[in-house]
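Fold it.
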Amino acid sequence: MKQSAGSRLPNWKTRPGVQAVTDIPENNMRTRLFSLLMVLALGAAAQSPVPVHTDSNSLKQIYFAGLRKKMVENFPEAEKDFGRIAAADANYHAAWYELASLAFKQNKVDEAEAHIKKATALQPGNEWYWILLAEIYKRKGDMAALTAVFDKLIALAPAKDGYYFDRANALFLGGKTDEALKAYQLLEQKFGNSEALEQARDRIRLHGQPAPGDAELGAMLSKGPGDVNSYLYLSGMLMQKGKSAAALKLLKQAQALQPENYEIDLALADAFRLEKDEPASEAALARAFGNQLMPVEGKLKTLAAMIGAATTTAKKVQLARWAGAAADLHADEPRLQALYADILYRTGRLAEAELRYKSALQLSENMYTAWEQLAAVQLAQHKNTDAIKTAGDALLLYPNQGSTYLLLARAHAGTGNAAEADRQLAIAEGMAAGNRELVADCQALKAGIRFAAKDYREARRFIEMALKNNNRNTPVYLEQLGDILYMLGDKPNALVNWQKARLAGNDDVLLKRKIDEKEYIGRP
């Protein structure tokens, strides 16, 4: 059936990826590797390096403005500020550090590495810079480079035993077993023996060997009777060797010792999953996320790491259940409320997501991404008037956000106010400053406004401009081009573009109907 074009726009969404408000790198809660490194990395986040002395007060002002934007997670604008500083003064090492930190938070690992190397070259004595480089190499799995970084850190802080330990671990993970044993020997000579050191040596001794039997496990556990960390370590080793049933047995013993230990529940979830017992695995995770003792940071990191793996509806529902348990338990934690809202948004539970975004912003209005996501989820529910208010409130706090002006334009277009939508789009484009994706989204919305006004030739001009940018929204733009071509009477090429949109990843149900029925179908 064909829809007459009126004042209401077709629902061409740019489908922005629902980015978690707190973008935290994946961290395995059960591992003991790189433990000190993680503590120091968190310290570095809380204590950004003091900028190098400069006579330019304007650069200092830009630097601290960038830090403020980073603190409220307005990463795009913070990146612009630090980039301006680096362009003006290439020796401003703190700006390179901040650019590296922002890139790392957004998983742009190669970019982060390039930036932090400039910082370490300019100020090689700054411990925090090397810590970030170590985190980058850990993420990349480059153990050789990671070992070299620990050499630098040991030279800078020879009294910190954690650097020696993590250097030895990196050597072991890099396949250099003999060198790792020598590194552990050096650690013992400088700082004495310890349970952790003995476990590390056991790990090397057992590497490549069959999984230990009950007698050997008992002997290893006897080194620290009642220490659940030993159970966790050994169970992890058993799971790596394909002995999940034996690992499960150990973990149940550990649970009897400490039934409220959330790390045991996290490990049990892994073991049950390997044993194909999904209900038990889900129950263990639910206990962990519902445990008051599990730190909020740990819950945020674990949930954020799970988001990418939740690719099926069932997994998304599970993830939402666990996130909901954590958010309800920590009702005063805005980041958890916002992350739960992100997950609800991904599962299509828009009304619930809206409420959680509002809860997060009531707790803390300093979350730029949450404002935009709230406006986006309101637009997805056709609450255009509410979205106008939300975007307006966000712009009072963050007045230089082109993407927020785009949302405001979408909301005005949804009410049929094309003139106001065009005015907001002009502002958004003026702020794009080389952001081709934002420019393309503005052009696509202009095409939608012209389509609604039945000015199909002008709509085609704008959507073809948007397609030249070839960004993540291209599958949606291709569908839009197909709609416009259909209205211009070019039905064969309309079908070609709808099919291209489908192949490019646009899985919209209505698009499938257009292809199957070979005609334009408007949204209700």
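The chain is about 70% helix and 0% strand.
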